[in-house]
Write a structure and sequence with these properties.
Elements (H helix, E strand, L loop, with lengths): L3 E4 L2 E7 L4 E2 L15 E3 L4 H5 L2 E4 L5 E2 L2 E3 L8 E5 L6 E5 L17 E10 L4 E12 L2 E6 L13 E8 L4 E5 L2 E5 L3 H4 L4 E8 L8 E11 L7 E5 L2 E7 L4 E8 L5 E3 L9 E7 L5 E13 L4
Parallel strand pairs: 2-23, 3-23, 4-23
Antiparallel strand pairs: 1-2, 4-17, 5-6, 5-9, 7-8, 8-17, 9-16, 10-13, 10-17, 11-12, 11-16, 14-15, 18-19, 19-22, 20-21, 20-23
């Protein structure tokens, strides 16, 4: 049941709803810093070119291939399994104006989402790798792996989520040692990428595509502060980064609607309204806000 705050006859309801809200494209500026809700859709070749592909076979670095609108209505980056070995797509401070790396703790980024186009029969495992200052000092750290049996059986796009409240791993003398990411670790993300390793079923024609790489915001009901003074009711709160809030009130016949001018609110909010006779009911609805990124 939603939490309720009652202040001098005014009822304030906190509600939480996760929806997808597409905003204006983020302009690419150098060293922009991590952005909760940053969304890499690979809309242009420049976006793909700003990523780097590492091949475990020849140990070379190059931009990934790009499937543009002439190949697919939804563009994406991709690579073949070069030499039948794994590939690693990664972003750094020069990718998307730096919006995919930086201080994840300050931005309250809870997870990383990515869609992969794969044939599960051709996959050994998939994981994420980040370069950060962790338990073993600055270096690479790895997510829990995703195995083909967790996905499906047919070649398709699969949506994967890697959260920071699950175990991550450091590599110590060839052994993977689990640890729990803390704020210091999350504040130091300098590189982030996805690694895909093929199974023996992969062929020279096998490939993997990536799309919809998202820094997932923490969507949670904000703490509310309420007061009534001089005939006015005041509601104050601050949403997490990458989260929109809307103040709603009930409508006759049931349901809720946004209070005029109180939609898609970000950051600190101060809402004031006259106190009217009888009870007034408000609720604050929080929604994920995704911001598409571009690379010049």
């Amino acid at each position: 049941m939603p939490a309720m705050n009652i202040v001098e006859g005014t009822v304030v309801q906190m509600d939480n709803m996760r929806v997808l809200l597409l905003l204006l494209v983020l302009s690419a500026t150098a060293d922009a810093g991590a952005l909760a809700g940053a969304w890499e859709r690979f809309p242009t070749r420049s976006n793909a070119d700003a990523w780097t592909l590492y091949s475990f076979d020849d140990e070379l670095f190059a931009p990934p291939l790009w499937a543009g609108p002439d190949q697919d209505d939804n563009p994406y980056a991709y690579s073949y399994f070069i030499g039948g070995d794994g590939v690693w797509f990664f972003a750094d401070g020069l990718t998307a104006g730096g919006a995919l790396v930086g201080d994840y703790a300050d931005q309250k980024i809870s997870a990383l989402d990515v869609s992969v186009s794969i044939d599960p029969a051709e996959i050994d495992f998939i994981d994420l790798a980040v370069h950060a200052d962790g338990p073993a000092g600055p270096g690479f750290y790895y997510s829990t792996v995703r195995l083909p049996e967790e996905l499906g059986s047919d070649p398709d796009w699969y949506s994967l989520r890697f959260t920071f409240d699950e175990s991550w791993f450091l590599l110590d003398d060839g052994d993977f040692v689990p640890f729990q990411p803390d704020d210091e670790f999350l504040a130091s993300i300098q590189e982030v990428g996805i690694r895909i390793f093929p199974s023996a079923q992969a062929t020279v024609a096998s490939y993997v595509g990536i799309d919809d790489f998202i820094l997932v915001p923490t969507v949670a009901p904000p703490a509310l502060t309420t007061s009534a003074s001089g005939g006015d009711f005041t509601l104050q709160f601050a949403s997490n980064p990458g989260v929109d809030a809307t103040i709603q009130s009930p409508v006759s016949g049931g349901g809720w609607e946004a209070v005029n001018g109180q939609e898609n609110l970000t950051g600190p909010v101060v809402f004031t309204t006259p106190v009217l006779p009888g009870a007034q009911l408000f609720r604050v609805v929080t929604e994920e806000r995704l911001t598409p990124v571009v690379s010049p």
